[in-house]
Specification:
Layout: E1 15-21, H1 25-37, E2 43-49, E3 67-73, H2 77-87, E4 99-104, H3 116-125, E5 130-132, H4 138-155, H5 164-176
Parallel strand pairs: 1-2, 1-3, 3-4, 4-5
């Protein structure tokens, strides 16, 4: 089982690759479709995984992954445990701006199984952005797709003068205020 590394392959021209990792395949699929519907000026490839590590026998066929989004369902403790287990299979250099935590199901506060403090602590531990959303609502799903697409564009290097690390540092300093 291989560790996922961000710079072990060459990037492809005018393209970006996003990996969505989470236990709810239906929500992953809806988010992927919303991202693909957004207007963009580069090719995008979205891969879905329920957990990491990815199978190593297809590693030679897998493109370079520009950004990993770990999806946590706030009403499922298994979802959080799955993400925590998967994090061990990600190289530390991915956490220099190429990882994001996306918490879903926040519209149903009474059905929460996970404390938000635990999720915030996880994001702080890995120095990665944390987004809260309700992907069941089409409008919020579209807004989340736009936000992830902008982040992916930065992670893939399509915005001159802005690196993934500098973007995360800007987000972090605004969160700390």
């Amino acid at each position: 089982m291989a560790v996922l590394r961000p710079f072990d392959k060459l990037p492809m021209l005018n393209s970006a690759v996003l990996l969505l990792v989470g236990s709810d395949e239906e929500i992953q699929q809806k988010l992927a479709e919303a991202i693909l519907q957004e207007k963009r000026n580069f090719n995008i490839s979205i891969h879905l995984a329920t957990s990491l590590p990815l199978p190593s026998e297809r590693d030679h066929l897998r493109p370079r992954i520009d950004m990993v989004v770990f999806m946590i369902d706030i009403k499922s403790k298994y979802s959080l445990k799955n993400v925590e287990t998967s994090l061990a299979h990600v190289d530390a250099s991915f956490f220099l701006g190429k990882v994001c935590f996306l918490v879903t199901g926040v519209g149903r506060v009474n059905a929460c199984s996970i404390e938000t403090n635990a999720i915030c602590k996880l994001a702080d531990t890995y120095c990665s952005p944390l987004l809260f959303c309700e992907l069941e609502l089409e409008g919020i799903r579209a807004a989340t797709a736009q936000r992830l697409l902008r982040m992916l564009k930065i992670c893939a290097g399509h915005i001159p003068g802005v690196s993934a690390l500098s973007f995360v540092l800007l987000m972090r300093s605004s969160n700390d205020d």
